[in-house]
Amino acid sequence: MKSIKQKSNMLLTQIIFLLVIQGCSSKKELNVETLSDKWISLSTPRCEVWFQNWGTYQRLFIILDDDSTEVIPSPYVTEKKGKPYLKPKPYKKVEKKQLKGNLYWNEEPSWKDGIENTARWEVDRANPNLKLPQLYKVSFTLDNGELIMDVNREGKPNLELTLSELNSY
Q: Which of 48, 50, 100, 165 could pair covalently with 125 via S-S, beta carbons 3.0-4.6 A apart?
């Protein structure tokens, strides 16, 4: 028969174990408003929008399909007998534009339907190279699971997108 001290030590060990397991749970708290990390456009131009949360600050990363060109193989390419699959076929090459920078929210964002969240977006990295930094005013509105994003530069509309959440990538 175990003593009372051994039983209490065992019970204490079990409680600590359960607290550690509960603290390491990957479930999100229900009261915390969160936004998906990656969104893709439903409208043209095609693009990907990433929200990168670094704890004390948040970055916005946009990959935008800027232009496409058709690549046609040289007319002098020869075809080997019996191997027509070796002859290159024409294809479209998509030129992409990348913009990345810190988001400075005007006020704490609330991700409820119909509420507009505005921020200043300071782009400090870009591909192809641009004169940096560039300042944009961005607004985000969540509408029935879709994110509406408006990007303005110097008071002129630069980009208007309707985005859909992408949970796995």
A: 100
